[in-house]
Amino acid sequence: MTPVEQMNTPAKAEREWSPGASESLYRVGAWGGGFFGVSDRGRVVARCSGTDVELEEVVEGLIARGLETPVLLRFSDILDERLRDLRDAFDGAIQENEYRGAYRGVYPIKVNQQRHLVEEVSSVGRELGFGLEVGSKPELLAALALTPGGDDQLIVCNGFKDRRYVDLVMHAQRLGRTIIPVVENAMELDQILRASKRFGVRPSIGVRVKIGSAGTGRWKDSVGARSKFGLTTEELLASVAMLRERGMLDCLTLLHCHVGSQVQDIRTIKDAIGELSQVYVELSRLGAPMGMIDVGGGMGVDYRGDQSDAESSMNYSLLEFASDVVYRVGEVCTRAGVEHPSIITECGRAMVAYSSVLVFDVVGSTRRAEQAVSAEGGGDSARATPDEPAPIRDLREALRMIGPGRLVECCHDAKKAIGDAVSGFRMGYLTLEQRGEAEGLFWETMRRARDERDRLGLEDEQLSDLDEILGDVYFGNLSVFQSLPDAWAIGQVFPVMPIHRLDERPLRQAIFGDMTCDSDGRLDRFVGEGGLRSTLPVHPLDGSPYRIGVFLVGAYQETLGDLHNLFGDAHAVHLRVVDGHWTIEEVVRGDTCGEVLAYLQHDSEQMLSTLSRDCERAVRLGRLSAADAGGLIRDIERELGGYTYLDPGAGSARDD
């Protein structure tokens, strides 16, 4: 039986539960990458530089410092270790394959542009030989400011480029930066060559090529002939001819391609690298000196932890990725008699995803199917009447027939009957009391069917929706649109679990609704045994804080978030372990109400002035006392300077 089935088995419910059982239930070892686990005290820990840091202890420490949830925890130690893992993987592959070139990783700033994080990547990257990748003028300005004196740190410039973007590149080269503008379309090469003449420099130039290898997964259309960026073969040859004609073919030093994002199947990477390497040797044959091959991003993160080629997963490891890239580039170049180039990767997601965890409090819940209905007629809703409507008779019969061998049939009958009951009510054939009776019978049928399914250990696909039908809604103090936009926009799955009480058996199933007024603001797909689940095992709310962690959120989520309902950025706290104890490096406070209003051109001072006049009018009309008016204005001033999220201390989290 799976951990979830064991959890729902009545006989099992009488036995002890352990932190290890929770670690297995939530599959922490599968998706955690060795960076997360469960302590003997039943709390999630982040494993930082040999020290286990309990997330609940951190959150309690932040609350004592005046920082409420939701809060984003960024672990610098995990970020550093992940960068070193990438370096070690390629160093090992280079040695194993007797590769004669070097490895140089670059971090794409677009993945997470937060200053402290990019500073950390740049600082550790300098030691590891890593650089930065930018895709716009603002990102280039940030990269230049973050790498003072970093003449040996590579900066790769992607994205569409106008004259000012190219001019910045030339200025950077004159400052001594190792910087390479990558030609994304045919027009850009002429811009770069004109700027080169204007500034009197001979730039190192890269070209991005459109490869024919097919992509896979959610971003498969970003690869191939119809991809947004890159030169066709004809345009690539024309670019080589232009450089040769102007005596600047020696400036072509880098070949780049895009193999996709979150590539889930290693075969896609193998095919793309093989094709890119062949283009590289052909450019060398045409007289370009080359020297660098940039395989782009693409390496995924196994959010699901099932090592598959499904979306939100990947069927390969970091070591396999590095080994395949190094082997295929080396094999093609060796066969062609071309010197092995330096290999560049832009694996931003894989670099930073593990380092951030979003923690939020549950502030309440709604529960379904709680009214038990006696099949033997022990309650009002179970007593038949001579003139009861047919849908109610059908529901009563479905409930009575629940048992082995008939679960699917009874569930189908109950779903049909409740639909008929709702239609009958809508048309005036059922009273409100009769509709309530029908719903009670339906919920009890579903509950008993689920219990019988779990008792028998059945895995029938037609019974898989029972958990979702019966699941609670736990309301989280967060905005999915702001903090987890990919979960809403593209169905990205993130590991979600309680960060404490893991020495207790989770007795309920739930989805999470956020604080926005949009029905899409929810989390309803979760990592589970054998695939994804529509509900998450959770603990009953008892009035004390109940905290949930969303893991592997370091890539893209912060920079893609929006201001739905004007919920702003959450607090972000950078943590590092020093002498075996966690310490705060930096606190980035989340948006205040006044700040998010200002983003949309609402002036706080003008708002206060308008409301003050309104208060004075209410005083004149006798609706408010002068003291009440003053209190109202003070409350408004306080809220304009306060957090956009709920105050967890304003109410208790307990089951409704």
Helical amount: 40-55%
Strand content: 15-25%
CATH architecture verdict of the largest domain: Alpha-Beta Barrel
Q: In CATH's first tier, which class of the largest domain applies?
A: Alpha Beta
Q: In brief, what are we looking at here?
A:
The protein folds into four domains: 3-75 and 356-368 and 471-588, Lyase, Ornithine Decarboxylase, Chain A, domain 1 (Beta Barrel); 97-346, Alanine racemase (TIM Barrel); 380-467, Methane Monooxygenase Hydroxylase, Chain G, domain 1 (Up-down Bundle), CATH 1.20.58; 593-640. Helix content is 41%, strand content 17%. The chain has 24 helices and 23 strands.
Verbal overview:
The longest helix has 25 residues, at 432-456. Strand 5 (103-108), helix 7 (115-128) and strand 6 (131-134) form a beta-alpha-beta unit. Strands 4, 13, 14, 15, 16, 17, 20, 21, 22 and 23 form a ten-stranded mixed β-sheet that branches. This protein has an eight-stranded parallel barrel with strand order 5-6-7-8-9-10-11-12, surrounded by seven helices. The chain has a three-stranded antiparallel β-sheet with strand order 1-2-3. It has 656 residues and is α/β, with parallel strands linked by helices. Helices cover 41% and strands 17% of the residues. Helix 6 runs parallel beside helix 13 and helix 16 packs antiparallel against helix 17. It has four domains: 3-75 and 356-368 and 471-588, Beta Barrel (Lyase, Ornithine Decarboxylase, Chain A, domain 1), CATH 2.40.37; 97-346, TIM Barrel (Alpha-Beta Barrel); 380-467, Methane Monooxygenase Hydroxylase, Chain G, domain 1 (Up-down Bundle), CATH 1.20.58.930; 593-640. The radius of gyration is 30 Å and the shape is globular. The chain contains 24 helices and 23 strands. It starts with a helix and ends in a 16-residue tail after the last helix.
